[in-house]
Queue: 2 jobs
Job 1
Amino acid sequence: MLDELLTLDDCERVARERLPHMVYEFLAGAAGDEATMRWNRESYERIRLRPRVLEDVSTIDMRVTLFGDEHSLPLLLAPVAYQQLVHDDGEAGSARGAASGGVTFVMSTASNCAVEEIAASGAKLWLQLYLQNDRDVTRDLLARAEAAGVRALCLTVDTPVLGTRNRQARAKFALPPELPTPHLDVAGRDRLSIVSGRREAITWSDVDWLAATTKLPLLLKGILTGDDAARGLEHGAAGIVVSNHGARNLDTVPATIDALPEVVERIAGRVPILVDGGIRRGTDIVKAIARGASAVLIGRPYVYGLAAAGPEGVARVIAILREELETAMALLGCASLRELDARVLWDR
Ligand SMILES: Cc1cc2nc3c(=O)[nH]c(=O)nc-3n(C[C@H](O)[C@H](O)[C@H](O)COP(=O)(O)O)c2cc1C
């Protein structure tokens, strides 16, 4: 099975064969007519690379340091809710795959496994936060996360309400009542698990509250504009994740790789900028870094890996990207991530 998985698209194909239709549509689908989801891919495909020959690429250094921690690859696993839908091990399984693949796992607030169980995988861990009405729920989760060794927080700021997810609605997606969501209160589960239209009242003052409540580096996930990124820094953000939530929220916003340069220009190196959405190849990682990202995240692909082959499938996805990135860097004539800048892009 594992040797059938040569690309991230192979993992999706196998996952699609294995998963119930409703679950596959929940994972694969996006918002509205899914224009942004197509653009997330097409924009990467349109960017052409500019190689340099006869550079010394006998060793390739793919390491990056974020908030004092060294990452072996500029890649993290993005927060994806409800992973027991695809495999009994859920997020604990993905985290084991992340540990053996040597990358950081960003767990969702809407995970089916508890933070301690995920941390027991040995993976380096970040926590994605959805703020819930009951601040005590968030305080409790933060305390448990810090005790479990979580290294950074990603506050998701692009989801005051769920997007119009027609595809999952058509497939009659519903969260099975028996699946646990240990870090969501009742209202939070209701808001995030069905197309409820319920709104979450989260504003900049909540960012101030969170920044004052935690000692961990706080990233804002789901920013697309230079203005919001700059404002985020004024409110205590230590990093920005340029994301359109895998195109699941507001359809027809730009591809994240096209939104990235505006944010990079505005932030001007003050904090790290990460990007996610549509990354499926090592060459995509090259392009994101060349446009100014410090690292990237993948969402759906590793969950397809989990569905296809459990924790080993997740590790396989990471290994594929590691090898593709190393190969792309060698063929570009770049021995380290620092060399991936506008000079590796054909159209600057
Ligand atoms: C099924 C699914 C569930 C998700 N759940 C969350 C979540 O709980 N919190 C969050 O911040 N983002 C969530 N996301 C968004 C991802 O973190 C990430 O931004 C997106 O998947 C990246 O795009 P990609 O899937 O094309 O790699 C989810 C995405 C998917 C596909």
Note: The domain at 2-44+71-329 is CATH 3.20.20.70 (TIM Barrel).
Job 2
Amino acid sequence: MAYYIRDTLGATPVLSARRPTINEFFLSCYTLSVYTGCEFGCPYCDSWIFQDRPLNEYVRVPLDLPQHLAAELEQVERGDLVAITALSDPYQPAEQTYRITRQALQVLADRRQPCLVLTKSVAVLEDKALLQRMNEQSLAVVMMTLVTADPHLSERLEGKAPPPALRLEALGELKRAGVPVGVALVPIMPYVTDRQTALRALLRACAEAGVDFVVWDYLHIPNERHRVRVNEILARVGTFPASYYRDLYQGQPVVNPLYRQELDAEILTRCDGLGLEVRAPHRLFAGRLSARNEAALLLKHAAFRDRVQGRTLMADTQRTLADQVYGGQIDQAALRETPLYPQLREVLGLGGADRSGG
Ligand code: SF4
């Protein structure tokens, strides 16, 4: 068990700055981290590099976070989504005692602010009624992180988190309660979780659980300290060719683009075959975010599919347009370059003439 440090925030803001570009995975403009440190302590987690002490040794509990959040939300647009996704799990064991995540959700609910929660914990079910009400009033999405459907491998990669099947069951229960649910297949670890059979089983499990959508991303190795940690994980999960990661990452934090492109294409094809959406579908957020955010997400989601399917120029165009629209710059002549134009016109409420703002 971790040590809990009861603390106050002082002058530290609880919300991130507004993102320069909308987050297409989590639909978010702002990020909120409730606790600091994470008792689950998954060995692959990026958060290890931000901590001086082991990530799972101390958990800082910000007792005054709800008050700070309420004050900071005064400066946030109602149509901007806040994602509780960053650096520590909002439903780790500390939540059973302190309920800071629940209080933060209540603050968001009082203001009808759209939100998304990312967790590995089935304790999120304890807030099911609140999330249900939030989704009726504005938007509340719950996502679970899953790296594998294999309980034995999960135990070695994320031993303190609930088994994958339980996480999927929890999502099924939330969905039956009317809360939109998604799965973040993050991170895909080369050689460990990227085998065809493993991915097939994982995606099938998501489809059978009836989740609304999935997103995925690859293992990030931001520095040498994390590279050493990753090598330790690899040694623990089995034998692998020593040069494999060296070749795949070539000293960079992100995986080689060719590997990424090939695996993206394979996963996208599998998802299409299973009827699994690969980003939050429009029906979940239509009319529940600001028009600019909604349009930016439509563009980014289309750009992802275009990029993976080789329509690179269209992907680049749509990504640029997404950032412009998100930033309030709306140029109808430019928007006509995308096949989404009729839909964007409707979402943005555009008439014949160009305009700025959203
Ligand atoms: S639960 Fe999430 S935040 Fe916590 S250690 Fe695992 S990956 Fe990191």
Note: Residues 38, 40-42, 45, 47, 55, 88-89, 120, 158, 161 surround iron/sulfur cluster (CB under 6 Å).
